[in-house]
Amino acid sequence: MSIKVKFELLSLVEAIEKVELYSQDFSNADDFYHDQKSFDASMMQFVIIGESINRLDKRFKTKHNEIPWQKIKDFRNIIAHDYFGIDADEIWDIIKNKILPLKEKITLLSEEFEPTKW
Question: pTM of the predicted model, to two decimals?
Answer without folding.
Answer: 0.89
